[in-house]
């Protein structure tokens, strides 16, 4: 395990210090899962944004979605 530091307000910090180790473990596990989820979501959003940007650049050069479909559906 690796220790990280997050900033919270004073009331939350006080409650955390008084919380049982069992509860802290549950919260830590949920936090880890949430961080993983958010990390993956942003990766996917970045990927989709990159695809959109590529699509826009290709469209400016004349390769539209219609043209791609035409190429894919041709018998050549």
What report would you give on this structure?
- By secondary structure, the chain is an all-alpha fold.
- It is rod-shaped and about 70 Å long.
- It has helices spanning 10-18, 21-60, 65-73.
- The mean pLDDT is 85.
- It has three helices and no strands.
- The protein has one domain.
Average pLDDT taken over every residue: 85
Termini Cα gap: 57 Å
Total domain units: 1
Instruction: Count the E strands.
Output: 0
Shape, per Cα inertia axes = rod-shaped
Radius of gyration: 24 Å
What attributes characterize this protein structure?
mainly alpha; 3 helices; 76 residues; single chain; rod-shaped; 0% strand
Task: Summarize the topology.
Blueprint: H1 10-18, H2 21-60, H3 65-73
Structure in a nutshell:
The chain has 76 residues and is mostly helical.
């Amino acid at each position: 395990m690796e220790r990280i530091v997050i900033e919270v307000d004073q009331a939350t910090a006080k409650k955390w210090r008084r919380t049982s180790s069992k509860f802290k473990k549950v919260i830590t596990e949920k936090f880890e899962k949430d961080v993983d989820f958010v990390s993956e979501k942003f990766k996917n959003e970045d990927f989709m944004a990159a695809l959109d940007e590529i699509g826009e650049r290709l469209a400016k050069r004349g390769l539209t979605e219609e043209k791609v479909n035409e190429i894919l559906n041709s018998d050549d």
